[in-house]
Amino acid sequence: MNKRSLVATLTVTLLVVLLAGTYLGLGNRPNLGLDLQGGISAIYTAEIEGEEPEEGLDEILDQTVEVIRARVDSLGVAEPDISRAGTDIIVQLPGISDAERVQEIIGTTAQLAFRPVEEVIPPGAPAHDEGPDCSAPIDEREQLASDESGILCGSPFDGATPGDPAETAATTPVDKYRVGPVALTGERIENAFPTLGQGGFEVTLELDNQGAQQWAEITGELACERDQGQPGMLAIVLDDVVESAPGMNPGVACGVGITGGTASITTGGATQEEQEADAVDLALILRTGALPISLEAATFDVVSPTLGTESLRSGLLAGAIGLALVGVWLLFFYRVLGVVALSALAIFGVVTLSLVTALGTVGFALTLAGIAGLIVAIGITADSSIIFFERIRDEANLGKTVRTSVKTAFASAFRTNLAGNTVTLAAAVILYFLAVGPVRGFALMLGIASVLDILIMVAFTRPLVFLLAGTKLMNRRTVRAAEPAVATAGVRR
Amino acid sequence: MRTPTFDFVGRSRLWAMISGTLILISLGSLGIGGLDLSIDFVGGTAYRLEGIDPGTTSGDLRDAAEDAGAVDVIPQLQGAGDDRGALVRTDAMEPGSEQALAVEQALVEASGAENSTISFVGPTWGQRITQQALEALLVFMVVVVIYISFRLEFKMAVAAVVALVHDLLITIGLYSLVGFNVSPATVIALLTILGYSLYDTVVVFDRVKENAVQLGEPGRRTYAQLVNASMNEVLYRSLNTSITSVLPVGALLLIGSQLLGATTLQDLALALFVGMLVGVYSSLFVAAPFLSWWKMREPEQVRAAEREAERLERGEDPDEDVPSVTASTERRAPITTDYVRGEGKRRKRRR
């Protein structure tokens, strides 16, 4: 790499840092977590329908907590605090000041079920007058018990927010469906996600063992009905509203059904965007719409942080002091190169902070654990420089010129750095996708830190050290000079 | 030659004994005492206070509850203006027990609450999170083994994971032994340690791999010597990295939790502090000696070791032909050893 491109790289890096610094300088600050800034607390009271199932009530409540958690998680890394208090469920979300947003996130009393469709009743058909009044709010409509057959309203066509009572109470008449008893409940769904299939967007559904069996049975029966000219559709019912009623594909055989525990549902929509939006919505409903009991929002309150500002302040102070100590050590041990390492750390700090701030706008909240993660990242970032500098010394000690030493050293130091960071990144990615709640936020910080570490090494440390290698600041003696100091350091400490 | 010549591999029996003892103590302590899980894991008692004095701070509530004998206190103020309340969560207490009533009494007195209720509060860090975190951990280890096998070699991957498990066990063991509270922050810290420990081990092994090209060039160096030499070459890196990592965490531990009294930081910082120290120890004294011990059992290495022993018997200098890998067990300098082990009797090293 020639001098010009080194200078160019360095300039671009510094411009990016300047940009990040300006962003922070304009007063943008990270969105802090529940522990540091407080948030909104909602208490939901569980309403158990019918006879109260004494047995397993705890289990159902626990599962409800998980469903709510999944819903909150699916909307971003908000680091919610969700717990049970008796039959109440306390949901705390950081930094959100309006109650409506919480209500929107947690949704209403969503319970998901699959029911076979016996008849589709379009508006205007004689039977359309029967059944519930579809313009009434959901909680005022008659409810259909799970073992009953009856008529249910369809969901309005405008792509309303699932589970939102205000929007589901549509003004335009919708299809009604005559449906059979519940064939399968949402609890049997393991996962649902939108995929791009051959015929456009679809939702892929994964069921547990029992669900797979039930699914095969019901789809087998429906395929027979389809062959006899009946609708052969399976209604996806959320809170007594038919969200979607996919028919059986010609490939599904009568009496066999869809086996194997996975299925896909092709979504409607004229354009690809609409299809995609439909698939995303439906997947969200399927994935999280399986609350086993109904919940009533009892109270909404703004709550104070669990830790308070003094913790935040002492955490940040500790970070600053730690950083200063690291700085002193690096300068003492590596002289000019120590300055480079310190600058790399400063850049890391500014860029990370602005990234965290930017992520705050999409719901990411920085908790005390996150701050600690960042303080740890200081050590790991310093390590990249240390590996590089130690390598330069090794090479210089072998009698090579500074320029050659720097070049050879970077090649091998970068390989090492990449290997180490790949492992960290793997940890971050896996934790992010497989874990929930607080672990996800941590994983995100870890991932950001390791990617930034690599970038800074390439775009800052390397060009700067390469350029320094051509100056008087860095010659054989200065590179090697620290050696006696090393021994002395050992003695004096 | 500035590269230190410390015999890591040669004393592997000693390290194995140290590590083995630590792990046995950890396991024993975990088996007998278990872990002191915070209310985030096991749930606790919640005191809901209504109509509290506007001037009440969360600090007042915490002090009141702690004075009345509660631990793990998480106070939160709710609402604003006239309609203020508070939610105080503490460790689990028997409903209606003297202690629970005493805490309630203290809280009401401190806040001037008009009304208060006690209820059991479930964990916020549920079974499911723990389970998913563990699953993620397993998947991660498999991926790491595959990656390191591909990038370096399979035996190194196994050695890295052995060191990792070693670190986690000892850190958790210390928590159990001292009776520290295990909070979600501790779990996060353990996950950090995991990344850190692996990173450190990978750096050491990367150098071993790089130097391995020279192994057997003149056909004379055993794997143990190679590992030893490589580790000595990266020793300054390891020490400096440890220092730069431990300094901020130490600051977090001392300044954050001791001086300013933010006890929550303690969970986090302590786990990190211990974990990092153990992580550095294990990458030098567990992972590499383990790797070397395993590799030395390969027939090729056994033969090389025999040749090496014969050569020593004949009184030849085994390093004669191999200047490229710098250190060896024979040239051990006691001064450096002292420096590394951090004992008092350090002497100035001459160049």
Automatic annotation (TrEMBL), chain A:
InterPro entries found in the cross-reference section: SecD, SecD/SecF_arch_bac, SecD_1st, SecD_SecF_C, SecD_SecF_C_bact, SecDF_P1_head
UniProt region (Disordered), positions on chain: 149-173
Regions that span the bilayer: 314-332, 339-359, 365-389, 410-435, 441-470
GO MF annotation list: protein-transporting ATPase activity
Annotated NCBIfam families: 2A0604s01, secD
Gene name of this polypeptide: secD
Keywords: Cell membrane, Membrane, Protein transport, Translocation, Transmembrane, Transmembrane helix, Transport
Record keyword Lipid metabolism present: no
Main location, first listed in the record: membrane
Name of the protein: Protein translocase subunit SecD
A single GO BP: protein transport by the Sec complex
Subunit structure: Forms a complex with SecF. Part of the essential Sec protein translocation apparatus which comprises SecA, SecYEG and auxiliary proteins SecDF. Other proteins may also be involved.
Membrane topology: Multi-pass membrane protein
Species: Egicoccus halophilus
Residues covered by the SecDF P1 head subdomain domain: 176-293
Functional description taken from the UniProt entry: Part of the Sec protein translocase complex. Interacts with the SecYEG preprotein conducting channel. SecDF uses the proton motive force (PMF) to complete protein translocation after the ATP-dependent function of SecA.
Domain of life: Bacteria
GO cellular component, one term: plasma membrane
Subcellular location: Cell membrane
Domain named Protein export membrane protein SecD/SecF C-terminal: residues: 295-466
Family as reported in the entry's similarity comment: Belongs to the SecD/SecF family. SecD subfamily.
Protein translocase subunit SecDF P1 domain ranges (all copies): 61-118
UniProtKB/TrEMBL annotation, chain B:
Name under which the protein is recorded: Protein-export membrane protein SecF
Subunit structure, interactors included: Forms a complex with SecD. Part of the essential Sec protein translocation apparatus which comprises SecA, SecYEG and auxiliary proteins SecDF. Other proteins may also be involved.
Listed InterPro entries: SecD/SecF_arch_bac (IPR022813), SecD/SecF_bac (IPR022645), SecD_SecF_C (IPR048634), SecD_SecF_C_bact (IPR055344), SecF_bac (IPR005665)
Membrane-protein topology: Multi-pass membrane protein
NCBIfam families: 2A0604s01, transloc_SecF
Classification via Gene3D superfamilies: Multidrug efflux transporter AcrB transmembrane domain
Keyword Oxidoreductase: no
Function: Part of the Sec protein translocase complex. Interacts with the SecYEG preprotein conducting channel. SecDF uses the proton motive force (PMF) to complete protein translocation after the ATP-dependent function of SecA.
One GO term of the biological process aspect: protein targeting
GO cellular component assignments: plasma membrane
Signal peptide: none
Domain Protein export membrane protein SecD/SecF C-terminal: 112-296
Gene: secF
Keywords: Cell membrane, Membrane, Protein transport, Translocation, Transmembrane, Transmembrane helix, Transport
Primary residence: membrane
Chain intervals for the UniProt region annotation (Disordered): 304-351
Family: Belongs to the SecD/SecF family. SecF subfamily.
Native organism: Egicoccus halophilus
GO molecular function, one term: protein-transporting ATPase activity
Bias (Basic and acidic residues) ranges: 304-315
PANTHER family per record: PROTEIN TRANSLOCASE SUBUNIT SECF, PROTEIN-EXPORT MEMBRANE PROTEIN SEC
